Amino acid sequence: MTELLPAATASEARKVAAEILHRLRDEELVAEAARSAAATVGRSLWEPGAALYGGAAGSAVAFAHAARAFPDSDWWTQAHRWLKVAATSTRERPLRRPGLSLGTTGIALAVAECDEDGRYARTLRSLDSRLAQQLDGFGPAADRALTVHDYDVISGLAGILGYASRRPATVHLVIERLVARCATGHGPLTTSRWTPWRIAPENYGRDGERELYPHGYVDLGLAHGLPGPLAALSRAWLAGHRAPGMRGAIRGLADQLVAVSWQGEHGRTWSRVMPFDASGEIAPRLGQPSEPAYCYGAPGITSALLDAAEALGDASVRAVAVEGFEAALRQMEARPRTLGPGLCHGLGGVLLICRAFAVRTGSAAARAALERLVERLLGGCDPGHPLIVRDYKPQVTGEPGSPLAAGPGGAWIDQPGLLEGAAGVALALLSVTDPAPPRWADALMAG
């Protein structure tokens, strides 16, 4: 692969990533940053335990990737140290759920990332066994309405499949459960193809959504919605796994997402959700636009479609993916807004996906945007901040009574975590300076 960035930009990105990691090795500094952030937003965003996205397990993943990026560093020592912190915490607080966010899959992915010499083989077999047991009763019961956490990347089956594809002991069970919920093969945009993914209003996760969508919806974000299962199944297929109905499920999900795209001011885009109306029919016209990000909006959706295009060998799906991502880049250029640096809903996540389009499609727009995104991300880094880089939280994310919720606008906070904090920014910067695929990005089903 040719270099993606000019040498000077790549060098600066690696330098800043290393500086962030040097700060993150200091447990006292990390703890103080976490306390300050919690005081601002009114809730904890970090725990010194097994959380993958906001805890020690995520730090272990970050240092393991850094150790591969900087072979002469001592980052392996840091990776194993943070992994030990995460593992120790599970003795007091056992992981009772299977997902990535606060579950067995998250710690298993961290262990796998740190297993550079086979030292954790026995631990991984034990985690595989525990995961299989937890999957036994996982998912919605017949008398319970579906939630995004049943199937999404962050806590559900899609994220579990991303890890299970590396460890075949449980992979086919997860594939079968996702396939069973999918409409398979080509077909028109009918309500019946969407109903199995419908989230009822009582299970919404955001304030104000009941007023906007009183009759239920299907989530269209990569983190919590339909693109997650599509990305997970496509990547499992590309990894060589096969199961009855699997290819048809990939085709069906891809067709659904292509069908609900629409032409916005800057080109092809998607709404945040697919709503239902009072009669129980899907109502695409009622969907609200979404800003470009990994978790929601065109970047995440097009990342999943790119995976599907490669699994299916379908040039038309690939073209839709490229068209949609390039439109998202134009939207970001035309409508600059306050955007944090993190992976979830900030610049880091868009940068990771931009890397995928630059490498895997040859998109000239994606290649040109890489340097701009890196420079914008570096522009927000300051050695004067405790962790070099700070996360932006809008007012609406503050808990009632917190300084953030009571203030007139958003706030910049020091956050060490993987998904929204400094560890993820370091990984995003390193990933665009290294020709090797960013294996850690299995934690997001992107990149």
Provide the descriptors you would attach to this structure in a database record.
4% strand; mainly alpha; two-stranded antiparallel ribbon; single chain; 447 residues
Task: Explain the overall architecture.
The chain has a two-stranded antiparallel ribbon with strand order 1-4. It has 17 helices and six strands. With 447 residues, it is mainly α.
Short description:
The protein has 447 residues and is mainly alpha-helical. The chain has helices at 7-24, 27-41, 56-69, 75-92, 104-114, 121-136, 157-164, 171-181, 209-212, 227-238, 246-259, 298-312, 315-334, 347-360, 364-379, 403-406, 422-431; strands spanning 217-219, 262-264, 267-269, 273-275, 391-393, 411-413.
Biggest beta-sheet profile: 2 strands, antiparallel
What level of helicity do the residues show?
40-55%
Name the beta content range.
Answer: under 5%
Structural class of the secondary structure composition? mainly alpha
**Rg to the nearest angstrom?**
21 Å
pLDDT < 50 stretches: none
Mean pLDDT: 94
Strand order of the largest sheet: 1-4
**H/E series:** HHHHHHHHHEHHEEEHHHHEHEH
Termini distance? 15 Å
Number of strands: 6
